[in-house]
Structures are given as C-alpha cells and as structure tokens.
Amino acid sequence: APKLYLDLVTGQPHLVWAQRFGNSSRVMYRPPSGSPIPLASGDYPSIAIQHGGETAGQGGGAPETVYILFARNRDLFLISNRTGSFGGETAVTRTPLDEEFFPGIVVSPGGLLSVVYEKRGKLFCHESADGGNRFGPPRVLDEGGVATPQVSVSGEILTVVYERQGDFYLVQGAAGGAFGSPVRLTDTPGVETRPSLGTDPMGNLHLAYVLDGEVFYTSNVQVAADFTATRRQG
C-alpha cells in the first residue's frame, strides 16, 4: 500500500508503505535523502508534511514535520517526527469493533491535521490542532454507501472525493470549520472506482478514476483571458 508525497518546496518525494512478513506488517518511511526507516507495526499508511518555513528542507528555515497515519488492530494511529525524531504513537480512533477503511491525512498551512476515513458506509473526519497529540470527536460528512475517500488540502480548504452508489461525490470545508453539502461529480450508468485526487499550487483539483476498464481524468481548471486592449482594431 505505497503512498507518495511530492514536496512542492524541495521537489523531492517522500514515500511510505507497508512491509509485510508472515502474518504481520510494519510501516516503512523513506525520506528524500536516506534509507527506509521502520516506524511501527501497522498497515495502509498515509502521509502528510508540514513545512516550518518557506525554505524548510533547504537549510534556511525550520525543519519540516512528517505525519504518518496507519491502521492496526481495526483502529487508526498517528506517528510523527515533530519532536525531532519519530516518537510515540497517538490513537486517532478507539473503536476496535469497527474497522476504518481508506484512511487519509492532510495538514493545513496553519497546522491543523485532518484525518478522513470510511466506516460502516459513512464518511468521517477527525481534526487535531496540537500536532496530533489529541484528536477531536469524529464528524460525519456524508453517509449511505460511502467508499474509497481521497482527501487533499489547498490553503485552509479541505476537499474529499469519494464513491457513493456508483458515482463520485465531493465535499469541501474550511479546516476546522464547517463543511458544505456533498456535490455529485459524476452521473453515469457505469460504476466509477479507484479515485485518485490531487491539488496543484493554484488550488485546482485533479481527479483520475477507472470506469469500465478505462482510466479517465478531469479537473476544475478554468482558463480565461487575463488582459485588456485599449485599441482592438487597425
């Protein structure tokens, strides 16, 4: 279950994955310049990075903080290097009788951590304002057959795209604030699956997915002329 985070400040990739051996697995992290590091027993990791300054990672600013979310024993846990090295875990969920699926994590420029996942066909979101030491109670963003949520953040705006009853939906909200109503993105007789969501530096959303065995791509990029002319003839 590999995940990649491309650092838009340094241009370097961070990687996390689950290394399985026998009946167990452990979470591995590979920094841009270094060897893979085993972090904890777990599976299905997700990664988010907060920069300490505009030049973080280039010798001129505060170091970046790496947050890694993962699943173990039907619950979600967080580990980070915010104290300088990877330390103890924080329990994000405490529901061992219910399993959380497709966990994802993002961090806003203000430092708010948001964890999104699906459980019992509902879309949940937890938030932490203290670097992941404590998470608030879960908020239900949508329900009724929700699956495979993907989360991204641009500025302080959180975006979640997910499957529901064969189509894709989107829900957005301010980090730490209110979310809007779900918006239907697709309406086809086919079943869209495997969403992959990305956000560019301009805040545009880019979505790739599978439909009837083919890969599709769409975005909300709007191109418009941005100039004026005082003489338009001759």
Uncertain residue segments: 53-61
Shape: globular
Question: Structural class of the secondary elements?
Answer: mainly beta
Spell the H/E element sequence.
Answer: EEEEEEEEEEEEEEEEEEE
Let me know the number of strands.
19
Spatial strand sequence of the major β-sheet:
1-2-3-4
The main pleated sheet reads as:
4 strands, antiparallel
How far apart lie the N and C ends? 61 Å
**Helix content, binned percent:** under 10%
What is the C-alpha radius of gyration, as a whole number of Å? 19 Å
What count of helical segments does DSSP give?
0
Overall mean pLDDT stands at 88
The portion of residues forming beta strands comes to over 45%
How would you characterize this protein structure?
Helix content is 0%, strand content 53%. By secondary structure, the protein is mainly beta. The strands form five sheets. It has a four-stranded antiparallel β-sheet with strand order 1-2-3-4, with no helix packed on it. Strands 5-6-7-8 form a four-stranded antiparallel β-sheet, with no helix packed on it. The protein is globular, with a radius of gyration of 19 Å. The chain starts with a strand and ends in a 15-residue tail after the last strand.
